[in-house]
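INPUT
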Amino acid sequence: MSDNVKFVQGNEACVEGALYAGLNFFAGYPITPSTEVAEALSSRLPQKGGKFIQMEDEIASICAIIGASLTGHKVMTATSGPGFSLMQEGLGYAIMAEIPCVIVNVQRGGPSTGNPTHVSQGDINQARWGTHGDHAVIALTASNHQDVFAITVDAFNLAETYRTPVVLLFDEVLGHMREKLTIPDPGQIPLVERLWTSVKEGVDYHPYLPREDGRLPMSDFGGVHRYNVTGLFHDMWGFPSADPGVVHGLLRHLVDKIYNNENAIARYKEYYMEDARTIFISYGSSARSALHVVEYLRPRGVPIGLLELQTLWPFPSRIVREKCADAQAVVVVEMNMGQILNEVKTAVDRPDSVYLANRIDGTLITPTDIRNILRVIQGKGV
Amino acid sequence: MAVRDYLRERFFPHMWCPGCGHGTILGALLRAVESLGLKKSEMVMVSGIGCSSRISGYVDFHTLHTLHGRALAFATGVKLSRPEVKLMVPMGDGDALAIGGNHFIHAARRNIDMTAIVMNNRIYGMTGGQYSPLTGYGALATTAPYRNIDHGFDVVTLASAAGATFVARTTAYHVQQAKDILQKAIAHKGFSVVEILSQCPTYFGRKNRMGSAVDMLRWFKENTTKIGSKAKAENPDLIERGIFVEKQLPEYCSEYDKVLERAQSGGS
Amino acid sequence: MERCRMVFSGSGGQGVITAAIILAEAAVLHEGLEAVQSQAYGAEARGGATRSDVVISDATINFPKVIQPNVLVCLTQASYNKFSPIIRPGGMLITDSRYVTIQKKVDARQFELPMHRSVMDKIGKPIVLNICMLGAVLRLTDLVRAESVMNVLKRRIPSGFLQINQQALDLGMELAGEHGV
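OUTPUT
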């Protein structure tokens, strides 16, 4: 079998995706269950001339990648729950200063130190609302290693396209389990490269003056254009401003550039959805259990399907509403207390027909768990 | 190039209070840069949050105004990813040593090539005069109305112990020395720390009855002395000025080149 | 083929996790099969009774964990005590006859193999106990060829160690042949 077929952990699949996308700077701090990402990159990045640095904490890690992104590199950090909490201020900075970067969160049980070696999907809302102030964020996930690879490439593409941090919300089961990964040939998945300004040396470059299409071309730190970057509200020069018009315009820009592109950013997969009357909505490793149930029940004549979400933020409300229009029951399968459930209830026409099938004890939700909950929903008892 | 050409005059007047020492430090820094003949596009200034950190807005370098305490972490990312640029990281005392204390010692430990400038006015000025890790025992601040019981760090000892390979101290009164030290610090290959005592007549001065800005500058003159001077021997309370540490040790980005070499030759 | 769900258990350091990875990797890279491997982490993986799960199939594997193994390997008494109740009725139990005393009959084909003693007698290096165990599993399940396992080992370990691994693999297959098949 050829060399591009590998048997790897999900964390390694993420590393392969990042390298394929052109990652060349990583800063991180060890934390279970994401540590294998840092370990693999400490070996792989310098082999291709990239830089790896283990920082003193997660705060420093996200700050370092933002600094490196400004010099023109594709950058990433990886962490888990408590480290992701520490990164929230830096995440907000990257949103405000519009710095492309990718933040991987391999989720474990929380709050606090929680359940470090066990699975959870409890950070969905933290990814959305963890940093302070109004803002928009892109968060993606996947349920198998081939998709972990592809969505990681996508994360880099979206970060460059929208000049924004992108959060990858994997989980302990995916991060640690091993399965097959086929590395695509170069060019097979298109890459979005940094959009550099065409403004020549000596001509005024406005780092925060969007083009007509809304994109902001960049100029590398250390290059010909010198400008200011700040986490304060700022004008087109990047200089701090508290002018109400400037503040209003910038905040609206930061939110609109993501929300106006909700459908373009939405990634999802459909399984047996055409005639499904019962629809599972799931994501990450729990989607594997949901799909297992669908493939068990379909041959037994049950019209059931799965809508697997890969984009969690911005939540693909329009797509969820449309796909669930004819469903008698929508069952959200996730490993938290209903973080995506609430989004689905808000999105669909009949929120009363949306149910939660969850598990929160650090164990991957099983097909039996889901089938038992399904029976209760159908009024059959367990 | 004239010193003035390094400024972004578009953004003046600056936001510092009348009598603040920070503008003097900016002046000394620009004269140091000018003496070294550095080009504007080869310099990156990274700052955090506070009065001192606004310095980055006024210089026509690549400037990155970051988060409170995190300037050195951002700067580490910039420097490691683009080692050819000159990195200057001006910070306030609270910025560098309270919220940013961990980043400070770790940047020193790595001996990464950048110049950390601690603009020490012994107070949090931007938030209105609270005590900092350099306020000192017995001083007054808006959060120490019954006098401060926290002991201050000695920046020079701290930076030396953490591994900085260039450590110096001066004041906003000693402008020529400040320029000379900054010039050496910027030229030094490795992590350099320059503590510059700066007067804050608005908060530290007023709270502690230090008088006007001029009185505070006179205090710097009268209460500091050159390293190892006779005056110091006679009066141990005097604060020493000068270069305390200046040594050559392997620098982080150069060391990283060895990592690249080993990785690419398949060794370890 | 029937989907095969396996649990390898023992104490931390016995190499059960490595054995599981080698088997699953051999299935994927050299047999064209699907396989998923997972394992206990943290405190559970250090001493006591650690486990690694492997699912091998010719179809896509969605649910990656093993709830009821068709094949359960226990290299210590603690792991036997902990995991023997989960074996799938009619499944297969493989234990090391020196370290595990089977307490009660379970509804499974039971193979008590003198793996540790044979490795010590014939090879003298306890580090290859896990490969000997893998040999027994190969022989008893017929899922993956020995050659595929050796191909995986060739990429993972220095060539100087290949021979004792081959010996251990053969030894495990022999033991399973003598005592079982």
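end of record. Chain C has a mean pLDDT of 93.
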